[in-house]
Amino acid sequence: MIELIQDYWLYFLVGQYPNGPLGGLTLTxxxxxxxxxxxxxxxxxxxxxxxxxxxxxxxxxAALVQVVRAxxxxxxxxxxxxxxxxxxxVKTGQATTMLMxxxxxxxxxxxxxxxxxxxxxxxxxxxxxxxxxxSYGQALRLVILPQALRHVSPSLVSQLVATIKATSLGYIIxxxxxxxxxxxxxxxxxxxAVEVYIILAATYFILCFGLSRLAFLLERRLNRRxxxxxxxxxxxxxxx
Amino acid sequence: MTFFDANLLRSGEYHDWLVQGFILSLQxxxxxxxxxxxxxxAIALMRTSPSAPLRxxxxxxxxxxxxxxxxxxxxxxxxxxPELLPEAxxxxxxxxxxxxxxxxxxxxxxxxxxxxxxxxxxxxAVPxxxxxxxxxxxxGRIAALRLVLLPQSIxxxxxxxxxxxxxxxxxxxxxxxxxxxxxxxxxxxxxTATFRSVEAFTFATLAYLTVSLAISLAAQLYARRFPVRTx
Lengths: 240, 231
Prior knowledge:
heterodimer; A: 80% helix; globular; disordered C terminus; B: mainly alpha; MetI-like fold; 10 helices
């Protein structure tokens, strides 16, 4: 196993870079992080649309969210990879395809987090803000979202874990992320399948378990802070 | 060449491929579910047991399995696991249907630990007094678990378990990576053979949507029919 790591660690980390496209673990991490960051504005928008007072806004977004959550992500990857180029006429590469799919995936899940955050607030918050003369947009921006998004950081870290795991699907369209590289190494070495895949699993484990512990710690710190500060619920009760 | 040729989906060779894929996906779902649920119960009981070593084993299983993507599990079970088997067993595996067997193992374990977490939340939602009362009425630990604790916690856990089943259904698509001829595999095969991606993927989308929505509907009906009773 030591020999295997000595021979292939660089390939495992960056793929063929700098003599070819960036790949390996670096690509997995960069792609996941980029997808989550790019999905944030979209997720916020979709989340707000999910609780919009207008049916014409609420329903199509609800349908999109339901459909994306009801089909396998792999199917979305296939639609994006095989069908999209036929419509747009532009041949998109594996990395771009995967990035687009992950942005959609993250946006839809973030939208649910935003929606849950908004719905956890008492109704009086919006009504109070509106009756003080703020427009709906101002009330959202200045009153609702700052409160709804305060506790969102643990969910964001958990979503990053989900994204890292989802990146592995790029393997199926030939994206040279870390699982694909591991299979390449397995083909090159040929006799050490157990070692290769144990290393792959351990790599994912360290990354994802570390991040989920971080999410757990963030959550605990937030809970402790809101326990010592006057709780949101009691403030809300007074305002009612 | 029409944009959407529905005849391709209604009959003929490609129709047969797609339907076979759909059936194999359902079989994978069924087989994995049947293994995953008892596994989930067992791991959840380990994680809530009074014995510290058992709890540690349960926790390591859950964290070790769910922090690795399903795709890596499938690659391990298909490419690496047979190397660990004795020669005779290995040959027997290759003679049967290795893609199907390895996919079922990986999917069951992956779904099993996720179900275990749902069942554990169900167990923790039952007040401790239930177990204490059962024990003080003279029931043994196993009898108290079986007759008092599990019936209540399973009821709480059914809606999340059903949504976990939707995840398992979606996850069967990843088995395409080791060449199990399920829905995604057949859709891609039709795409390669005909370049008719729209028809093939539409079929797959509808197939996945139908089953996912049916399970979600079942979850909603269950929650309405059997609302969680709080003590």
